[in-house]
Amino acid sequence: MRTSTIAIGLLLSLGVTAQTGHATSDANADTTAAFARLESLVGEWKTEDGKEALTYELIAGGTAILEREIAESRPTMLTLYHRDGARLLLTHYCMAGNQPRMVARPLDTKTGELAFEFLDATNLASPAAGHMRTAKIRFVDESHIETEWQFHQDGKPTMTERAKYARVR
Fold first, then answer.
1. Taking Cα atoms as reference points, which of 116, 112, 113, 91 lies closest to residue 101?
2. Cα separation of 39 and 61, whole Å?
3. Region of residue 153 (phi > 0: left; psi between -120 and 50: alpha; otherwise: beta)
4. Cβ–Cβ under 8 Å, residues 45 and 65
5. Residue 37 in domain
6. Is 40 inside any structural domain?
7. 85 belongs to a structural domain
């Protein structure tokens, strides 16, 4: 009886390990594909009116992507994208004085959308304090992207910023 209980436990354990390994493998593939898509952004981008610009730079030996957002009406902000095991994370260095971190959902290959959801934040005075909560990048084609950032305060969305960019170089 004890031998069969041990054998059943071992088989169940192997099944969980195999499933976990497969899920991790799929997640790694999703993360690798999403990071590669972000790498394709390296260069300069501008809105049609030229009032906003993004630059993307591959840094840290190719392990991170730095996005610099420049606009006429506000301070420069930075967003850093990097892999963390099977996850793709971003940290947004915001003019609100906090640094929300978000985790990517799998890249939607049909719509070209890469969506990020809030994970946590540094320098956030309280959960009710204003901060960016979600971010999306839609890869329209090789020369066009659309972005959407949603700001939350007191537990609800208070502002959504959308922009369309074209590659400059």
1. 91
2. 13
3. beta
4. no
5. yes
6. yes
7. yes
State pLDDT tens for residues 122-146.
999 999 999 999 999 999 999 999 9
Number of domains in the chain: 1
Q: How far apart are CA 153 and CA 54, in angstroms?
A: 25
Q: How far apart are CA 116 and CA 153, in angstroms?
A: 18
Give every CB contact of residue 26 below 8 A, 6+ residues apart in sequence: none
Residue type for position 70: I
| Tokens coding 117 | 């959801």
Whether residue 75 lies inside any domain: the answer is: yes
Contact 54, 76 (CB under 8 A): no
Predicted TM-score (pTM) of this structure:
0.84
- If DSSP codes are grouped into helix, strand and coil, which group holds residue 8? helix
CATH number at residue 68: 2.40.128.20
pLDDT at 86: 95
